[in-house]
From TrEMBL:
Keywords: Methyltransferase, Transferase. Coiled coil: none annotated. This is SAM-dependent methyltransferase. Pfam families: Methyltransf_19. InterPro entries: SAM-dependent_MTases_sf (IPR029063), SAM_dep_MeTrfase_SAV2177_type (IPR006764). GO terms for biological process: methylation. GO terms for molecular function: methyltransferase activity. It comes from Nocardia huaxiensis.
């Protein structure tokens, strides 16, 4: 197998690297920056989607850890950035185990470098649409005990599966693999039925052939029969905000006054397997 760097076509943008660029990272190429600059310059304010999503993920890992779950499978993890899943989880428990999964070879290369001395965390290159291949990967087998609760993370990734690629079936596969008490976190592009939604979706479809905004009913349907925990599906900026922010109940229903139009376009929820 060739080295990851040899597999990268720098002329084609990558979802993971565009996201890295929008978050201020440096692991990206000119093609990635061109797409990112469209969002920065032509859709001013849209970058807040990336930041709101990242902050909600950090809070979610903290909440999951506080609930006693010590195993994480982060599907479509993207490039390493500040406060990665394993770093947040390890603040709560030194025995946290984390598997990062992404299809971008650059993610694999950087992840290996970052995690070279961390035996409890690993990164594998795999396709989200091949859940069985991920489940049976030797590194997943090594780190994840599927007899104990697992946190499965779909942070800003299921919206990159079009309807005919079965995003609900991907979630259902993982639900069937984990025991009662396991947790599922999903953040997803949320349709605002407005010009912002149309413009952003059009750009992603034109660039990657994917990027699907879904309404609240469609997003919630991805959870199937899981028990969605409070506060339900809400914009990421309003999902269990930090202690120094107004509490959930004071903000829910006030989205239009509390957050920007763009921030409304990325929503999150956490659910438990009964």
């Amino acid at each position: 197998m060739s080295e990851p760097s040899a597999q990268v076509d720098q002329s084609k943008p990558s979802i993971a690297r565009v996201y890295d660029y929008l978050l201020g990272g440096k692991d990206n190429y000119a093609a990635d920056r061109a797409v990112g600059d469209y969002f920065i310059n032509d859709l001013p304010g849209s970058v807040s989607i990336a930041f709101a999503n990242r902050q909600a993920l950090i809070r979610a890992v903290g909440e999951i850890s506080a609930m006693g779950v010590r195993q994480f499978v982060d599907l479509g993890s993207g490039l390493p950035t500040a406060d990665n899943v394993h770093q947040v989880a390890e603040r709560y428990s030194a025995d946290a185990h984390v598997v990062y999964v992404d299809n971008d070879p650059i993610v694999l290369a950087h992840g290996r470098a970052l995690l070279a001395t961390d035996a409890a965390t690993t990164v594998i290159q795999a396709d989200l649409r091949d859940p069985e291949g991920i489940r049976n990967h030797p590194e997943v087998q090594r780190l994840i005990d599927f007899e104990k609760p697992v946190a499965v993370i779909f942070s800003a990734i299921l919206h990159h599966l079009n309807n005919d690629e079965g995003p609900d079936e991907v979630v259902r596969y993982w639900v069937d693999q984990v025991p009662s008490g396991s947790l599922f976190y999903i953040s997803h592009f949320r349709s605002g039925h407005n010009e912002e939604t149309r413009s952003a979706e059009e750009k992603l479809q034109a660039t990657f052939g994917r990027g699907r905004w879904r309404n609240d009913e469609e997003i919630l349907s991805l959870f199937g029969d899981l028990d969605v925990l409070a506060p339900g599906l809400v914009p990421c900026s309003l999902w269990r905000p930090s202690a120094d922010a107004p509490d959930d109940t004071s903000r829910i229903g006030e989205e239009s006054r509390e957050i920007s139009v763009w921030e409304e376009l990325i929503a999150a929820a956490l659910a438990r397997k009964p």
